[in-house]
Amino acid sequence: MTSDAAKIRLLMELRSQGIADTKVLEAIERVPRERFVAEPFRAQAYDNIALPIAQGQTISQPYVVAFMTEALRLGPRMKVLEIGTGSGYQTAVLARLARRVYTIERYRSLLCGAEARFAELRLTNIVTRLGDGARGWPEVAPFERILVTAAAERLPLPLVEQLNLDGILVVPVGPSGEQEVLRVTRRAAGIDTERLLPVRFVPLVAGVADEA
């Protein structure tokens, strides 16, 4: 199967699984997932599965990427913070939908690889940072939207505090085997929390990684 045919099959599968936002589907269509997966897994780039990348991390299942992106309710003028750049695939999808994406990664090697892919794809509205994602990016807060691509044990309040009023945080929360995606909206009177989807993510780890 050619990559175009595999991509069409994937898009049809995402629609059948309930992804209805046409702009999200268009973003998935426009981002070449094969550029973000390791060479041994290129043939599976458009399979609806998570795949391993370096440093024991993963590139998320396309359905989960689409679901979490749709849950953000993104607008084209929004400033978005992403925690966990990884391969850069989710970042690239966000960059097709938002005005600017700020993304933080704790592994320098992953960040360098993602930055190279962004340059190749001429995605110029992405700002990267090597750092502790659990702390967010207070210097450029507030954000309209925040997406976390690793599972926090509990709701990360420093990130909630970096949302503007009516801003949305989408984050997997819970211990291994009991994680679920939450959508948290910051209101004047507090926060609204919705439970959306059971998931399996690598854990959100504080600090910058010490790589060999």
Quick synopsis:
With 212 residues, this protein is an alpha/beta fold. It is built from 6 helices and 9 strands.
Q: What characteristics describe this protein?
A:
two-stranded antiparallel ribbon; 212 residues; alpha/beta; 6 helices
How would you characterize the overall build of this protein?
The protein is of the alpha/beta class and 212 residues long. The chain has a single domain (3-199), classed as Vaccinia Virus protein VP39 (Rossmann fold), CATH 3.40.50. It is built from six helices and nine strands, in the order ααββαβαβαββαβββ. The strands form two sheets. A seven-stranded mixed beta sheet has the order 5-4-3-6-7-8-9. It has a two-stranded antiparallel ribbon with strand order 1-2. The chain starts with a helix and ends in a 13-residue tail after the last strand. The mean pLDDT is 93.
Largest sheet: 7 strands, mixed
CATH class: Alpha Beta
Principal-axis shape: globular
Poorly predicted ranges: none
Helical residues, percent = 25-40%
Q: What fraction of the residues are assigned to beta strands by DSSP?
A: 25-35%
The structure class reads: alpha/beta
Rg measurement, Å: 16 Å
CATH topology: Rossmann fold
Mean pLDDT: 93
How many beta strands in the DSSP annotation? 9
Alpha carbon gap, first and last residue? 39 Å
Q: Helical stretch count? A: 6
